[in-house]
Amino acid sequence: QVQLVESGGGLVQPGGSLRLSCAASGTIFRLAAMGWYRQAPGKQREWVASITSTGSTNYVDSVKGRFTISRDNAKKTVYLQMNSLKPEDTAVYYCTVRYSDLRYREYDAWGQGTQITVSS
How far apart are the first and last CA of the chain? Predict the structure, then answer.
């Protein structure tokens, strides 16, 4: 069973920065796409950013130019560098990874979520 452990959340002032990490553990033959979602109070979970196994990245328009997603395959870790944070970035952030096992079956795993609060 694959587990994802997130870290790096917290309270930050508007304009500040935070870096989220998400480390995968367990039996993983291959890591495919990795990404981040967020869910603000009273809203649906929304996709924020993703990165393919070859390093191609995509972002939701609201974070382009402010957030950067990256990955370290050796550490089975995905990161989200968040700069110029705004109050509307306040949400619980979830990481997700798609991986395959030794039989090439694909699965999606989710982290437990980490709270980001942007407030003065």
Answer: 40
Cα atoms in the Cβ-side hemisphere of radius 13 Å centred on 51: 19
Bridge partner residues of 21 (DSSP) = 7, 79
- Work out the angle at residue 68's Cα, subtended by the Cα atoms of residues 4 and 36, and round it to the nearest 5 degrees: 35
Residue 85 · residue 68 · CB < 8 Å:
no
**Residues linked to residue 6 through DSSP beta bridges, in sequence order:** 22
How many whole angstroms separate alpha carbon 61 and alpha carbon 30?
29
* CA 92-50-80 angle, 5° bins: 55
pLDDT in tens, the chain (120 residues): 899 999 999 999 999 999 999 999 998 889 999 999 999 999 999 999 999 999 999 999 999 999 999 999 999 999 999 999 999 999 999 999 999 988 989 999 999 999 999 999
Query: How many C-beta atoms lie closer than 10 Å to residue 1's C-beta?
Result: 7
